Amino acid sequence: MTYHGVKFEVKAVDKNIPSGSRLKELKYWCRKFHDCNLAPAYKGGSYGNLSFRIRKGGNEFIITGSKIGLKDSLSDKCFVRVLKADLDKGVVYSRGAKEPSSESMLHYAIYKKRADVNAIFHGHCREILCSAGRLNMRQTRKKEPYGTLRLVNSVLESLGKEDFIIMKGHGFISMGKTMAQAGKRAINIYNSIA
Length: 194
Description:
The chain has about 190 residues and is an alpha+beta fold. The strands form two sheets. Strands 1-7-6-5-4-8-10-9 form an eight-stranded mixed beta sheet, sandwiched between helices. It contains five helices and ten strands.
């Protein structure tokens, strides 16, 4: 897979950099995803993006910025606050110094649909994708291009109440009530097949 950047319009409300104690935990999971080969590096970034819902009952979230390396020492400016997304128009409204991750529309749509989900970790792992059928994991029906409304709709159609879903030919999404739950779920699945 080759990364070509975001495929939606970004409307940055301001350049205010997210802050807060929960960013430290998100940075930990970014590094952990890299170390466990769940978000492999490419020149200039990593294949994967992680987010957490800011407050219960709301759909705003903090997500990794576009084109960041999860293996790197991440500063607060590597993260973006997504305020909302207009899926019909393909517009994401954000705050921060970077563009939000290319899968920001997907994260927004899941948070909107699933009030029980407070963390979404998206990664890429060949071993998990190859084992999806054997382990009877929920999958989307077909491969769709990253960062598109087609991918969003494909995931929403397959999501149900699952906390782990395979995006066929693409990657996986691990969800949880907490970041620890989303992260440990992905690592446990990887460890069970590695």
